[in-house]
């Protein structure tokens, strides 16, 4: 069986590393020697573009747990990152050039990895090959069109996503569960009601909040940033995503002046997104302004809203939990194109795609981790057909099933979740 990995970013090098270390030859295609995206500055593999931070290092953080799971699975990037870390408080930050340089050296030194400098414009298949596409969020042009031919109309070229909050961080003494006109269950939506004064104060802060810089990015009307809509007039949001029609606040028995609806993000009901709140505000401004929403004063945001150029699949429709395409099990995707968001999240998907490409070649069952692990939960999220209005997702404790009985202290709860995850991963690896 022949193995092909397209793209030598974080996901691609991890996938190739797993295949090579399983004893198979793999062709790693990378276009940088011929062509670069506007975001890339060097010809090195695994180049960190936006930041040198790989987020929190401590084990009782979602990012720290993710990296520990990756290390247990034989990650290439995690040990290199730890070896070239720079002081960054509680975060794992690296010298970008040293990090990418060492990754590149290790890949080039692996006798089972053939590096092919080529711009891949079309996906081609045969019965004797397995392909992993790890071309990243800037995938476009001929290759994007080729992916669209295979996946149908399920490749997005922008990311216009609303913030997501932990369900248990919403103050239900102020919010209430209900669907409009009672069409659905009370647990499908959480409603945050405004009176007139609260609404007007919120809109004033919203329109004056600081936005992020956006380059070459336009969205259609239905994805307009909430702050841009608010600038059209005081009542514009109240007749748009904040409309209160069909809702009655059980505390007043009246319709609110305005209302923000939160919609289930996952089947477990642990995360909810702010409906219609696509935004280009800076993350700190989102925290400040959206905390003015009644019931969200102390909300824990697991993802802030983003609006940027991005290419990603509607993975719940297309992919299995092992990152293979449902309609073609010899085609895998990995990295941010699958809807995992973040450097290490992308790298972890490459690990899983690489492991499972080998298992597919060997006729073995897919290696799918339990959802009580961070990697397993992310795999489940991108392949969960119950997820609608799919938005890319990074590591966060909201994707894990809660521990019962609930541990009130957040630090203790996160430590318990991490310990459970690592034990679960250890058990799964013993059964491989």
Topology:
Blueprint: E1 2-6, H1 10-21, E2 26-30, E3 53-56, H2 62-72, H3 77-83, E4 85-86, E5 91-94, H4 96-109, E6 113-117, E7 129-133, H5 141-151, E8 155-161, E9 164-166, E10 176-177, E11 189-194, H6 196-208, H7 226-230, E12 258-264, E13 271-274, H8 283-290, E14 301-303, E15 306-313, H9 315-318, E16 324-325, E17 328-333, H10 343-361, H11 374-383, H12 410-430
Helix pairs in contact: 1-10, 2-10, 2-12
Report the uncertain regions. 215-222
**Average predicted confidence as pLDDT:** 91
Tally of DSSP β-strands: 17
Determine the CATH superfamily of the largest domain: FAD/NAD(P)-binding domain
CATH topology of the largest domain: FAD/NAD(P)-binding domain
The description of the largest β-sheet is: 6 strands, mixed
Order of helices and strands: EHEEHHEEHEEHEEEEHHEEHEEHEEHHH
Tally the helices: what do you get?
12
Q: Strand-residue fraction?
A: 15-25%
Q: What value does the Rg take, in angstroms?
A: 22 Å
Kindly report the oligomeric state of this protein.
single chain
